[in-house]
Amino acid sequence: MKTMNKPELLAPAGDLEKLKMAIIYGADAVYLGGERFGLRKGSKNFTLEQIDEGVKFAHSRGKKVYVTMNIIPHNEDLIGLEDYVKELYDLNVDGVIVSDPGAFSVIRRTVPDMPIHLSTQASVTNYETIMFWYNLGIRRIVLARELSLKEIKEIIQKAPKDLEIETFVHGSMCISYSGRCLLSNYMTGRDANRGDCAQSCRWKYYLMEEKRPGEYFPVFEDEKGTFIMNSKDLCMIEHIPDLVEAGIKSFKIEGRVKSSYYVATVVRSYRMAIDAYLNDPKAYTFKKEWLDEIKKASHRDFTTGFYFNTPTAEDQVYTSSSYIRGYDYVGLILNYDEESKIATVEQRNRIFKGDKIEVFGPGRKHFTQIIEKMWNEEGEEIDVAPHPQQIFKIKMAEPVKPWFMMRKNREDINNG
């Protein structure tokens, strides 16, 4: 009897709150960056003390933490690498993610027992490269994003059984090859391969002819310009059975610079979809509400990337580089009193008495209610919570728990 592949749901953690949010909302593991050697300077990243706290939080719940060390280093970037990886090893991280053979060699030599994952930045696209890295000791590889599902299946079929394959299933897509891009460096001096991408691919571009300086022509016939390298976001939640049956071990969500609300919303939907399929594959049907929930977080239009065919013009967004934001994250539940049905809330966006809100938590359907009354910390009735992270109280229509979240539809915003 064939054993069902149980994939890991791997979520981004840009800071400690996002790490905790990802795990509480259903991630099996998180990946994060320390203050050095990672590819996301735009996220807050973690001090060693924060990594320690994050690892303890995750391990106490049976979850894992991986640390990114996937820059493409120059000589000076290697300074301190040995000491840093020793510290990570002492903190009991579950693995590090690298892309560079030199960094791999240093880590392997310094802490031989440290699990090393090969980053998508290494651009692995075939089973011979898989075997090259396997023979060096790699036991997990994040494949290049430019592979089809058919190619991924073939690689998994030919790979050793103890080699895990990880692929991205959701999030922003680079126009470059597996993230190895020089455009940001060329345009701004910020090196994407050393963690400082300016997202130059999402800027608005025009064409200028050499002998007619100052005359800017849209690349397409549109006076507003065009975003010629602006990919739609990857979203594979409608294809969970295909991903599981392919034998992919880890489903990776992109987004270390995204918000806690984004992380919770996306992880929650993928968790419910994966669990529903694993619980009863034969009776499984995709629920549109899972995708609808994801769309309530900041996003672009969606594409399946390279999984089923090579992306075409239909997979690009030519009109805007902006995100679609239909909902505002307005509050995080800190506490709930079952007797009074009063919740203590930390404000995340301005919220008014009379607002219609949606409340949701891990693994359950959201509910909707009107805020009829609000109180400040002193118990005084208020009409609005305007201050960032202000603590206030409201009565809940249904029971809630800490880490539940509140959002409101921008179309329903009450301006008081």
Note down, in words, how this protein is organized:
With 416 residues, this protein is α/β, with parallel strands linked by helices. Helices cover 24% and strands 22% of the residues. It has an eight-stranded parallel beta barrel with strand order 1-2-3-4-5-6-7-11, surrounded by five helices. An eight-stranded antiparallel β-sheet has the order 17-16-22-13-14-21-18-19, with no helix packed on it. The protein has a two-stranded antiparallel ribbon with strand order 8-9. Helix 1 packs parallel to helix 9. It is globular.
Beta-strand fraction estimate: 15-25%
Main sheet: strands, sense, barrel:
8 strands, parallel, barrel
Structural class: alpha/beta
Task: Give the overall form.
Answer: globular
Mean pLDDT: 87
Condensed summary:
With 416 residues, this protein is of the alpha/beta class. Helix content is 24%, strand content 22%.
SSE blueprint:
Layout (H helix, E strand, L loop, with lengths): L7 E5 L3 H9 L4 E5 L14 H12 L4 E5 L12 H10 L4 E4 L2 H10 L5 E3 L8 H10 L3 E3 L6 H10 L5 E8 L11 H6 L17 E3 L7 E3 L14 E3 L4 H7 L3 E4 L6 H20 L8 H7 L7 E2 L23 E11 L4 E6 L3 E2 L3 E5 L6 E4 L3 E3 L4 E2 L1 E2 L5 E5 L9 E5 L7
Parallel strand pairs: 1-2, 1-11, 2-3, 3-4, 4-5, 5-6, 6-7, 7-11, 10-12
Antiparallel strand pairs: 7-10, 8-9, 13-14, 13-22, 14-21, 15-20, 16-17, 16-22, 18-19, 18-21
